[in-house]
């Protein structure tokens, strides 16, 4: 089969937490993945011995993260040299493991820590296979978060990590990582592992959110180590498209894809489109940004008009309303390449009036238009875990199926053009206001003689605990303001959200106050830093 995003990955069997229930009817082991600190229940047939498959794995994957994982395996082997675990892993043991009964599966896996390279298998989830997001958190803070499920929204207690698992190291700062909920790697080993989803199009699943079923396999988090957030909602009026588990089974569209704008978000999106096998032509205002993607197999477009005229579907992701308009209406712009049947998807976060105007001029030339702003940041873009909010041409939305699955974990279709712009501004308004509140609290703690780290520890134990809160507080405490989401762009979104409120005479006093703080931060030359640099606006 064609390689998906994840090749076989090295891991070792460890003791599951006491409170962590084993999936019903599954002969599986609890596995820790080297180099990522992710954990998951893995079926027996998906496990392969490390040593016999080591060279095969290395040939398949040349990535930096994979090399780090291999290095971690070798380091583990060096540490455990002389112990029974190091010598017990061989092909005979693998055969015994495959033939082991359910009773043996219940025995302590800590007796023999085995290394395994993982192969592909799918787990059905409702009408589609959902992705889950994992972040590792400080081992000292012990944050918990409820695992939300469609039919049970109550928090679930987490198991404590086994005491003998002391070689587990978790970085101090949180990082967003991806975990396999079904497709755990890019290889298809036994055909029986994969089961087709019951849907007319197995690669892109539409479902009413109220009909989302709970997953057949639930990956529960380890207390004080990992947080798993399964994002589901009870909305009945909006349809969503849920991506396959790790995009391993995506069949890329045969349509030629164009992409304009290689910023923080666009770069990750294009990289994932290429990884999933799409034919992509790229253009960027500063051409040197295209070089990396040309090396990865992309084609170079000389102008936006050329990209649109040579591609079937052209995506764009630029900074603001002015840039979005200039890209379409400017010299050698998108509009000059539009002919009947050409498709344009604007992923920029802009106001509804701007996107409506662009839709009208595209459609007037016979083109098809979709707005598709994305919720996320650079890390989520790189990981292909964005949330896509789309509106406009429904047929075009469906034509973008494989592209959206490559770049995101979920996409929502919100109806007519303008709806996605409004929703995106509201989402970012909430996020921007929350970020300013976090900065306000941390600085108030400091000036009143309270420990900022302790404040974070307390917040991480309460109902406000989230990946966003933890990451941004870590940025501030470490003085690391490398942009994951530019401060100047969150301020732009707050400004546009306030204008949206003005247009319907709706008060937005919280956003207005936050906007003033971000403007202060911009005056302090923080525009090109991460949004968490709003903290510096509060420093006397």
TrEMBL record:
A GO biological-process term: transcription elongation-coupled chromatin remodeling
Keywords carried by this UniProt record: Chromosome
Residues in PWWP domain copies: 1-53
SUPFAM superfamilies: 6-phosphogluconate dehydrogenase C-terminal domain-like, NAD(P)-binding Rossmann-fold domains, Tudor/PWWP/MBT
Bias kind Basic and acidic residues: ranges: 79-132, 149-169
Coarse class of the protein's main subcellular location: nucleus
Cellular component GO terms held in the UniProt record: chromatin
Gene Ontology MF annotations: DNA binding; NAD binding; NADP binding; nucleosome binding
Localization in the cell: Chromosome
CDD domains reported in the protein's UniProt record: PWWP_GLYR1
One Pfam family here: PWWP
Family of this protein: Belongs to the HIBADH-related family. NP60 subfamily.
Name this polypeptide is given: Cytokine-like nuclear factor N-PAC
Organism, scientific name: Grallaria varia (variegated antpitta)
Gene that this sequence comes from: Glyr1
